[in-house]
Design a protein that fits this description.
By secondary structure, the protein is an alpha/beta fold. It is built from six helices and six strands. Strands 1, 2, 3, 4, 5 and 6 form a six-stranded mixed sheet that branches.
């Protein structure tokens, strides 16, 4: 299985490799393709899946891989007085043009970070300004805000896992053969 990840970020590439090995029990060949997402440096709302899809499609086009994987982190701005939530979105594109999607768990950002985002700062910039050296960009905002209980790699793995759910039937799991293919007649797996 050959995979092209639309990022030079080792956290994303390692997460993709780990998830594919766990789900399909094979050593996947993962190539990193350093490409842009086509969205702003701090993606918000609809930019997040757009960035993920662009990364996946461009990575696939630039290689001879079977699947392209794009992962984009960003912030969902909610209406009213609801706080912003940080998430990741993954898009997986195959050679037939099929795209499947996954999303990480989201987490609320503190008011001090939300205020800085509103002025145009990126999440990483805001985290650095507020938390200084206790913020490790490789481990992500979630590591700082959760006291190290969760890190960026955890979120990235869960994001890729969710994007693979619709593909499990494609890869021979007969227990799931009716879940996505024929929803009209599908019963419990």
């Amino acid at each position: 299985m050959r995979l092209a990840v639309g990022s030079a970020n080792p956290v994303k590439c390692d997460a993709v490799r780990d998830v594919y090995k766990a789900f399909f029990e094979v050593e996947a060949s993962v190539v990193s393709v350093n490409i842009g997402s086509g969205v702003s440096p701090q993606p918000f709302n609809a930019e997040i899946p757009c960035g993920a899809r662009t990364r996946a499609e461009q990575a696939l086009a630039a290689t001879d891989a079977d699947w392209g994987v794009g992962i984009e982190a960003g912030v969902v701005r909610q209406r009213g007085d609801l706080p912003p939530v940080a998430i990741q979105v993954a898009a997986i594109v195959d050679r037939d043009g099929r795209v499947t999607w996954g999303m990480s768990p989201g987490f609320e950002l503190p008011n001090c970070i939300a205020a800085r985002l509103a002025t145009g700062e990126t999440l990483a910039g805001a985290m650095t300004a507020v938390y200084g050296p206790s913020f490790d960009p490789e481990k992500g905002a979630i590591a700082t805000l959760s006291g190290g209980r969760i890190d960026r790699a955890d979120l990235t793995r869960s994001t890729v896992q969710m994007a693979l759910v619709p593909r499990l039937t494609d890869c021979g799991d007969k227990r799931l053969s009716r879940c996505y293919d024929d929803c009209e007649s599908a019963g419990p797996p």
